[in-house]
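Lab notebook: predicted structure, single chain.

Context: the supervisor wants predicted structures on file for every construct in the current expression panel, including those that have not yet been purified. This is the next one on the list. No modifications to the sequence; it matches the entry in the shared construct table.
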Amino acid sequence: MRVVTAQQMREIEKQAIEIFGIPSLLLMENAALAVVREIEHFAADKSSKGSLKTIVLVGKGNNGGDGLAVARHLLILGMDVTVFSFAKPEEYQGDAALNCQLYQNAGGRFFLIEGEKQLRLTRLALQQTDIIVDAIFGTGLRGALPSLVQEFVEEVNHTGAWVIAVDIPSGVEANTGKIYRSAIRAQTTVTFGLPKLGHFLAQGPEYAGRVIVDPISIPDKFLEQEEVSTFVLTDDEVKSFLPVRTLQGHKGTHGKGVLVAGSPGMTGAAILAGRSALRCGIGLLQIVTPQQAASQIDLGLTEATIWPVDGDHTLGNQSWPLIAEKCSSAQALAIGPGLGQNPDFISVLEEVLRTVELPVLLDADALNLVAREPGILGWRQGRGPLIMTPHPGEMARLCDCSTQEIQDNRLEIAVTKAVEWGAVLVLKGSVTVIASPDGRAFLNPTGNPGLGTGGTGDVLTGSILSWLAQGVDPLEAACLAVYLHGKAADELAREVGWSGFTATEVADQLAKARRSLELI
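Prediction complete. Output recorded below exactly as produced.
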């Protein structure tokens, strides 16, 4: 599904109105009905809709007009509704003005918030309400909320009410997801046409909650514009990336992958990556590792073939002949988990980038070594697919900047560097960004804080290696692996919550996550 900026969505709506002829009032009405449907779903679990108290917060723009239309429909359904407005009735214009009039004509309660006095009077009402609809600001907000609205928002966030945001929570920038001081913290957000970047970037996901996308009757031809280059992954799209197996398949046809990983004290990283690759269905897995780590990895991963390298505790330039030999009969190569940072291995990375035509995945310590000699990435141009999977700290080292700079500009930096390096770049985080060398970017909606534990990055590396070895396109393999990685964590979280599950459990859950996708 495409993800757009506020400006892109406004242009799409403009075209739908001017070219297709959809009245703007109809779009506003459809938006309101989409919000009302979600409120009805919430109310269906309660004994009586009529007993639920609802407060609708509105501003003077079109977002406020949406909120006023929501209030009118809830009133007609028999719910106890009050509108708290930060604009006088005469300040509304166009469709919003009409919806303000219609709401008042229906006998709806309208309470104007003009200053601290009204804020004090509304505190009790906020504490006693069941549902709060946020329609103060829409996608046009930039910067901080006005001080009066900010105080009101903080009061809302301290209630026990169920909060639903219209289009995007007030205080969240639609293009960046950034929040200045405060914003509405919603449990559900209903957005219109297409999701906005701010639903997935920075603090946006934390404040938007569950995001529902409603097309509000805008035809697909307007929503599927080619100039939109950012997408959010969905079940249907990712399902199409899964390789199809036949009854005639065997280990030789299910792909052979080479994993260069491990060192004494870091054998778990190699085991986790290998376990994940096997759980994702790789036919044959070969692991190149130092002699001192080989026996422990062999015990921990009996299904893989272990190829030890004599010499130092960490792999150095003496490992290249064995890596080259194993790559000659493989379909994919991954380097990095638990590797260690022997400077001699930089020459091996250079040889890999310069000569190996297989898809090559660099992770963890391989990326840290590249950060010492970033110029070696130039050897890869035109020689074969490259996938890089940095977390924000590794990305900061690769870009020679601070981790905060990476976090503040995740999408822009990921796309810029993917194009510059000619690589599929997987920038890990709460919403992982998968950027393509052609400038497209994919945002992953699966996953949860439970993935913030040691070893889960190694699990992701093994999964990508497995899909690459099975012949999945590099960009699709990265998207598939990231999505299933998060989906596995989400399934575990439903059992034990956002903490307490391990990387091993995530690896073991991957097969079930894949199967659940196949059955959709």
